[in-house]
Amino acid sequence: MTKVEAKKRIEKLRKEINHHRYLYHVLDKPEISDAALDSLKHELFKLEQRFPDLITLDSPTQRVGGKPLAKFEKAKHRIPMLSLEDAFSFEELQSWEERIKKLIPFGSPSPIGRWTPKNIISYFAEQKVDGFAISLVYKNGVFVQGSTRGDGRVGEDVTQNLKTIPSIPLRLEIHKKLPSPEIEKRFKELLQKGEIEARGEVYMTVKDFEKVNQERQKKGESLYANPRNTAAGSIRQLNPEIAASRPMSFLAYDMMTDLGQKTHQEEHQIAEALGFKTDKGERCSNLKEVIVFWKRIGKQREKLPYQIDGIVVSVNDNKVFEKLGVVGKAPRGSIAFKFPGKEATTIVENIIVQIGRTGALTPVAVLRPVNLGGTTITRATLHNEDEIKRLDVRLGDTVIIQRAGDVIPDIVKVLKKMRTGQEKKFQMPDQCPVCGSKVIRPISEAVHRCSNSQCGARQKEQIEHFVSKKGFDIVGLGPKIIEQLMDEGLVSDPADIFILTEGDLAPLERFAEKSAKNLIEAIEQSKKIPLAKFIYALGIRHVGEETALDLANFIAGQIPRHLEPFALLEGRLREGSRPLTARDSSLRFAPFRMTSIMQKFSLEALQNIQDVGPVVGKSIYDYFHNKHNLKLLEKLDKANIQIQLPKFQVSSFKFQNKTFVLTGELKSLTRDEAKEKIRGLGGDITSSVSKETDFVVVGKEPGSKYEKAKRLGVKIINEKEFLSMFR
Ligand code: IVH
C-alpha cells in the first residue's frame, strides 16, 4: 500500500470508528459489535504504525497509550469555573426567584433591551449529575486541553485521562442540525481558526462503579465509597492506563464560547449537535413548571444509570443571566435544587457478620433506625475488614450513612468526636457464624470466607426451602430476590428475613415501592404458622411434609405434659385459673418453647414416634441438639414467630385460618363429628356469627345465627355442600 492509499484508508477508518463510537457511547445505540469495532481500530493502529507521520491528535488510536506523568500541569481557566448555590426546599427556590427578580428591571426599557415586559422569568431545568466538573478546550475543532476545576481559576491538566473517555469527542463535528444558521456559521469559522470550550460532568454509571469495586475487592484493594469518588479518583490517576481501565462518561451542560447562543437551552442544543452527550433538560415558563420537572426527575432518579443529586435551574436568557452576575463563587442566575438528603447520622448498635452465596463473610452494621431519603434504614454494609479498619468504626459509634444508588447504605464517616470511650472494637470471627467452620482470609483477598465451600450455597437453599409454599409460604420471595438479599448482606439465614424493612428492599433491583411493601406485608403475615409447617420449614434432614405433620401431631399429643409452659407463655394459665379447653386449639407458642420441648424428648422417644423410625428420629434429635440450629431457633424466637399448635389431629391445612359456625341439626353427623372434621383440616369453629366468619353451616331448624349470617352476607352452606368440601 502506498502512503497515499494508506492516508485515504486511514481517514475512512477514523471516520467509521468515530461514527460507531458516537452511536455507542453518546447515543447508546450501537450498530456493530464491540469485536467489529475493535477490528477496525486494530487495522487503523497497524496502518498508523507503518506510517507514523500520518498519526494525528484526534485519531481514535490516541485515546490510550500516553506515558505516566510525574505530576499534572496547571491549567488556567479562560473563564472562571464557578460552583452553584443549593436550594433544599420550594421556599428556598422561591426566595431565590424573589432575589433575582429584584435585580431585573422588568417592564422598563433596559440597557440590554431584552427583558420580558411582564414580571416573568423563564428557566431552563436539567439534571444535576453527581460527578465532577471538567472543562474541555478544542482548538480548530480538535481536543487539546481538558482540566479539572481546581480553585476555579486554575485547575489541573488531565487531558490524557479525559481522552480515554469514549463519550468525549476528540474532534468537534456537526452531528445534528445546530439551532440557527448564524450559530452554524460561527461554529464553522471557529473550526477553521479559534477555540471552543465546553464544560460538563465526568461521571461513572452505578453499574460500572460496582464493577470497579468488585475488581478491587478481588484484588484485595480498598473500596471506593461511591461513583463520584471513583470517577474523581480515576481522573486524577497519573497513569492514563489506569484511567483507561475505568469506564467513565461525560455529559456536557455548558458551551462557554460565544457561538451566538441566546439561551441556556440553545447551549444544550449546540452541545448535542456537536457530538456531546447532554441531558435534554426542559424549558420552564415559571417556577411551578420547574417544580413539576423536579418531582418527575426525582421519581426517575433511582432508575437512571447514573447518580444525580438534584436539578440545576438556570435563568434561560443568557443576557439576563450575565447581568445577574456572580455572588461569592456562584452565578446568581443558577441554583442547584437538591433532592432530599441521601445522608443521615445514626448509631452503630451492633456489627454482625452475614454469609453470602459464595461463602464470603460480609460485616454489616446494625443501626439505630433512621430515616434516609424517605425510608427507614436499619443496616449499612461494611463490605470487609479493611473497610472497618479504614473507617475505624466501632460498636456504639455515631456515624454518617449514605445511600449510594441501588445498594444498601454505606457508612461514610465516623464522628469520632462523639465517642464516649464506651465504644467497642470489632473483630472478624474465626468461626463461620452459620456453620461453625473455620474462617479464612485468602492471601491477596480483602474478604474472609467460610472454609466450608458449600456453606453459602447451602444457606441459600435453606432459605428457599424455608419460604416455600409448604413452609412459611412467603409469596414474592423467589430465588432471584433471595440471591440479591444475600449478595447485599441483608440476609444470610432464614431468620434474617423477618427483620427486613421496606427501606432495605426498595432500593434493590426489581423492587418498586409497592412490591417492597407487599413483600414486607407477606413476611409479617407468615409469622403465624402452624406447627407442622414450621417443622417442615426448618429443613431437618429426612423430614418432609408428611413427617412434619406426624411430628406436629405427636407434639400436640404431648400437650398435657407440657401444658404449663405453653399456657404460661400465653399468660392464660396462672395458679388456680381454668384448665385448657377445646377453644385453646389456636394456642400459639414461640420457637424457644419448641426448642425446650424437643430437647425433653429422648432419642428413643423420637425414634418411636409412629411413622418416624430410627433414621429420621435420629436426624430430628440431632437437629435440636446442634448449636447452630439452636441459634437459628433463638433468632426466630426474637423475630416473634408464633407457632400455632394443633390441639386436634390435623391432616392438612385446607381450612387454615377459616372459621365455621354450625347452626341447626345435621342429618348424617353429630355436631362433634362435624367439628372434628373442620379441625382435622386446620379450620376453626366459633359459636357466634360475625363478619370474620367464613362459612355458616346450616342444618335443620337453624337458629338466629342463620338470620345473622344472611344479614352480614356471610357464606351459607347446607349439609351437602359442607360434606362435599371434605371429599
Ligand atoms: S451548571 C456555575 N449544570 O454541580 C457552575 N452544574 O454543585 C456551572 N453539575 O460544579 C454548573 N450537573 O460540577 C451545572 N447540569 C449541570 C450540572 C452541574 C452537575 C455539578 C458541577 C458543578 C456542581 C455545583
Automatic annotation (TrEMBL):
GO terms for biological process: DNA repair; DNA replication. Its EC number is 6.5.1.2. Residues 650-727 form the BRCT domain. Zn(2+) binds at C432, C435, C455. The active site is at K128 (n6-amp-lysine intermediate). Its cofactor is Mg(2+); Mn(2+). Keywords: DNA damage, DNA repair, DNA replication, Ligase, Magnesium, Manganese, Metal-binding, NAD, Zinc. NAD(+) binds at S83, L84, E126, R149, E201, K338. GO terms for cellular component: cytosol. One of its GO terms (molecular function) is metal ion binding. Gene3D superfamilies: 5' to 3' exonuclease, C-terminal subdomain, 6.20.10.30, BRCT domain, DNA ligase/mRNA capping enzyme, Helix hairpin bin, Nucleic acid-binding proteins. It comes from the Bacteria. It holds the Pfam family OB_DNA_ligase. It catalyses: NAD(+) + (deoxyribonucleotide)n-3'-hydroxyl + 5'-phospho-(deoxyribonucleotide)m = (deoxyribonucleotide)n+m + AMP + beta-nicotinamide D-nucleotide. DNA ligase that catalyzes the formation of phosphodiester linkages between 5'-phosphoryl and 3'-hydroxyl groups in double-stranded DNA using NAD as a coenzyme and as the energy source for the reaction. It is essential for DNA replication and repair of damaged DNA. HAMAP family: DNA_ligase_A. Belongs to the NAD-dependent DNA ligase family. LigA subfamily. This is DNA ligase. It comes from Candidatus Portnoybacteria bacterium RIFCSPHIGHO2_12_FULL_38_9.
